[in-house]
Amino acid sequence: MDETIIIGSGMTGITCARSLANAGQPVRVLDKGRRVGGRMATRHVTMASGDLAFDHGAPYLRPSDPEFAQILARAGARPWPDGPDQGRQVGVPGMSGVALALADGLDVMQQTEVTGLRWHDHAWHVDTSAGVTRAGRVILTIPAPQVTALLGATHPFHADLARVVMVPCLTLMAAFPADSPRPFTSRSDPSHPLAWIAQDTTKPGRAGAAVTWVAQASVAFSGEQLDAGPDDIAAHMLPLLADVLRVDPARALCARAHRWRHAQVGTPLGQPFLRARDRTLYAGGDWCLGPRAEDAWQSGRAIARDILDGDHVD
Ligand SMILES: Cc1cc2nc3c(=O)[nH]c(=O)nc-3n(C[C@H](O)[C@H](O)[C@H](O)COP(=O)(O)OP(=O)(O)OC[C@H]3O[C@@H](n4cnc5c(N)ncnc54)[C@H](O)[C@@H]3O)c2cc1C
Asked: Is the CB of 11 under 6 A from ligand 1?
């Protein structure tokens, strides 16, 4: 049986890989990033006073499907209550911890970028930063605009991919001394340039020598500043955060920015995946169904089911 290559080790890719591997299929996951998890990401910053961790992608998950809730629990997710809001789940020691647990035992190659795909001699030839690899089936679980970039504008998936809208998000990761103000656990204000702010130190297993904050800019602010350099973005966002927290920005122990060009789904595809007629090529991700990691899980699961059902019928 020819190997299946899954491109992307985010929630979609890992979910799909797990189901296929459990069914005995040979499957390998390739991802260009340093760590498993994609946008379920945790950035570690080493300081003289100790290591700091920031969930700079999805800050929490709110499972609605009981099966997804069980999967998260098995992956070590824990509640992150904020006042009466008890439904939030977070990874421990960070959001990437959930993906890491889900990927346990899978064949995953990080820091391997896929740069091209060609069907030739009854197989896919996958060009990667580590060389060319051959596969019987390829599953793309990368954001829709990146699928378009890989497949090209003449590919049959193109018209469907072009309907998907993904919005950017600029994220600030900042730490202040332990005695600095902690006015809230999290705050959502879509009308403010910093639309979401979370005190990561309040998440389970995160207490440390500093208070860590993650701020996500609004869609409007993110769009305006997207092409600025990370240092300029951090310099722009830090005073906004300090103003909300009523703290002197000069007291920040660190301030880093991250640019998510394709952070969340604005307009989804409206179906769980795209598939070539011969079932050798699939594309999926959160962008198929909605803006949350649970949508990514649904897409990854649906692709695996389609493949396993199809193999059974064939
Ligand atoms: C700022 C922010 C806030 C969010 N808030 C929430 C929230 O509150 N709740 C929630 O449920 N969800 C939230 N999300 C969305 C959630 O993170 C995503 O829905 C989910 O993680 C998407 O998973 P995925 O596997 O579809 O894609 P991704 O996680 O993006 O995984 C795709 C992977 O593909 C890799 N890749 C891309 N191109 C290539 C290539 N050419 N070669 C190899 N690898 C490649 C990337 O490195 C990445 O690891 C948020 C996301 C962001 C960024």
From this structure: yes
CB 212 within 8 A of CB 173: yes
Q: What residue ranges do the domains of the chain occupy?
A: 4-36+103-164+269-313, 167-266
Q: What angle do CA 13, 116, 270 make, to 5 degrees?
A: 45
Calculated CA dihedral for residues 10, 14, 15, 19, nearest 10 degrees: 170
Gap from CA of 249 to ligand 1 centroid (Å): 30
Ligand 1 centroid to residue 51 C-alpha, Å: 24
Question: 4-36+103-164+269-313: what fold?
Answer: FAD/NAD(P)-binding domain (3.50.50)
Cis peptide, bond prior to residue 168, ω within 30 of zero: no
Check residue 61 and give its pLDDT.
98
**Residue 64 contacts residue 119 (beta carbons within 8 Å):** no
Q: What is the pLDDT of residues 9-57, one digit of tens each?
A: 999 999 999 999 999 999 999 999 999 999 999 999 998 878 899 999 9
Tell me if 263 CB under 6 Å of ligand 1: yes
Ligand 1 atom 35: the closest Cα is on which residue?
8
Specify the pTM. Answer: 0.97
pLDDT per position as a tens digit, 247-302? 999 999 999 999 999 999 999 999 999 999 999 999 999 999 999 999 999 999 99
Q: Whose CA is nearest to atom 53 of ligand 1?
A: 263
Ligand 1 center from residue 192 Cα (angstroms): 24
96 in contact with ligand 1, CB cutoff 6 A: no
Alpha helices in 23-92 (DSSP H): 66-74
What is the CATH code of the structural domain delimited by 167-266?
3.90.660.10
Percent of the chain whose predicted confidence (pLDDT) is above 70: 99
Residue 268 Cβ contacting ligand 1 at under 6 Å: no
